[in-house]
Amino acid sequence: MSTQDAHGKRPEEKRDEMSDEKATTTEAEPPRERNEETAGGATLSLSRRRLLGTVGAAGAGGLALGGSGGALAHSLSQDRTPVTPLASVGAGRHSFHGTRQPGIVEPGQAHGHLAAFDLAPGAGRREASALLRRWSAAAARLMAGEPVEGVADTGIADDAGPSSLTVTFGFGASFFDRTGLADRRPAALEPLPEFSADELDSRRSNGDLWVQICADDGLVAFNALRVLQRETGRAARPRWQMTGFNRTPGATDRPRTARNLMGQVDGTNNPRPEDDDFDRHVFVPRGGDRRSPEWMEHGSYAVVRRIRMLLDEWDEQSMEQQERVIGRRKSDGAPLSGGDEHTPLDLEKTDARGRLLVPFNAHARVSAPETSGGATMLRRPFSYHDGFLPDGAPDAGLLFVAWQADPQKGFVPVQRKLDRGDALSRFIRHEASALFAVPGGAPEGGYVGQPLLEG
């Protein structure tokens, strides 16, 4: 990579010029704002705070032009120098405070970080409470596109808007032992059973605390991860961290269901917030017993699995073989029994020879609610690629995140069925697993988990 900049000057030459300019600046010259740029003698301030103010004044309607999601007009400074305001992707914003935590029902974002932390030796309920208070305050500011007070500004997310950032917190089963709250651990948080196809790495599984960070900009997502990691102080230490990605908003001609790294349309049968029984399947109801404690009202349970895909073996299969493994057409996600992507599976339909059009061991059939006692989950995954294995195969697959009101009634019965006879099992490996209780949202001035930690 060249050590010269676009003007042909080396870094040391630029530093010398900058030093000379600084030496000739008079004390009467007013200080410039951080992140300002000079073009044609006109000073153009591009600080993140002022950019956000510009977005607020312009309104969302003035930012999203047409259906492409990428077209953007340029404003001009007095000397006609083009200045690009925040794009529609950067202007997306969700609220941290509310009845439910963000990052569950919002549309999936393009970048994600999943991280687990363990409380430090000697840290207990008081330290956990202080940590969740710091984390919640930082998340609220980050999601609003504001700098976080009390933490050195890294500049990672400068010039970017909130970019639909969401930050979500959860508690693992071990958290309750570490904080002396074992008697308040929900029955629904009991450990997941072992499955015959599991090849789990304990170092990348479980954890006291869980953080899910999602955003439509990679730097905004990383900045949030960096800030929260620094905010842990001495209260906790990282256990594991995984990074994933999805399709960027506006990359397709119209909104479409995402595809996974096998090229399959993935997420067609997800429950939708407008469904009558959505809340019943996804969120914890008002209870007051061990299964639905009051502090978990409006919360949910997240099952997290790192699932490596054997992509080399998969790509060797013919299109017809791949479609019969899944039970859907690869081109558009429609079931092999006919129709379009959202046509219900016809599990009884056969071809002229009497063969089931959706094979008996097809993934779509085995995982369908109709064959699993109505078990339903809201899947909100990310793809990942962590380089290549020693044999040259891609270390890639799915960061599976599934939300449900009770994992013993959602994930467990479905995974048991898949474990017994899913054609897809031949092409995947479950390498890490975790289960977290994700309480309801935090009100203004409060923090996530406060009813548990201070109740």
List the topology elements.
Elements: H1 11-24, E1 36-39, E2 42-45, H2 48-58, E3 75-76, E4 82-83, H3 88-91, E5 111-119, H4 125-143, E6 166-171, H5 173-178, E7 209-215, H6 218-231, E8 236-245, H7 278-282, E9 300-309, H8 311-315, H9 319-326, H10 363-367, E10 378-379, E11 382-388, E12 394-404, H11 411-421, E13 428-438, H12 450-453
Antiparallel strand pairs: 1-2, 3-4, 5-7, 5-8, 6-7, 9-12, 9-13, 10-12, 11-12
Helix pairs in contact: 4-6
Total helices: the number is 12
User: Which range does the strand content fall in?
Assistant: 15-25%
Q: What structural category arises from helix and sheet content?
A: alpha+beta
Question: What share of the residues lie within helices?
Answer: 10-25%
Work out the radius of gyration. Answer: 25 Å
Overall number of strands: 13
Q: Between the first and last Cα atoms, what is the distance in angstroms? A: 57 Å
Q: What is the chain-wise order of helices and strands?
A: HEEHEEHEHEHEHEHEHHHEEEHEH
Largest sheet: 5 strands, antiparallel
- Shape, principal axes of CA atoms: globular
User: On the 0-100 scale, what is the average pLDDT?
Assistant: 85
- Taking pLDDT < 50 over at least 5 consecutive residues as the criterion, the unreliable ranges are 1-85
Walk me through this protein's architecture:
The protein is an alpha+beta fold and 455 residues long. Helix content is 23%, strand content 19%. The protein contains twelve helices and 13 strands. It has helices at residues 11-24, 48-58, 88-91, 125-143, 173-178, 218-231, 278-282, 311-315, 319-326, 363-367, 411-421, 450-453, and strands at 36-39, 42-45, 75-76, 82-83, 111-119, 166-171, 209-215, 236-245, 300-309, 378-379, 382-388, 394-404, 428-438. The strands form four sheets. Strands 9, 10, 11, 12 and 13 form a five-stranded antiparallel beta sheet that branches. Strands 6-7-5-8 form a four-stranded antiparallel beta sheet. A two-stranded antiparallel sheet has the order 1-2. Strand 1 (36-39) and strand 2 (42-45) form a beta hairpin. Helix 4 (125-143) packs antiparallel against helix 6 (218-231). The longest helix is centred in the first third of the chain and has 19 residues, at 125-143. The protein starts with 10 loop residues before the first helix and ends with a helix.
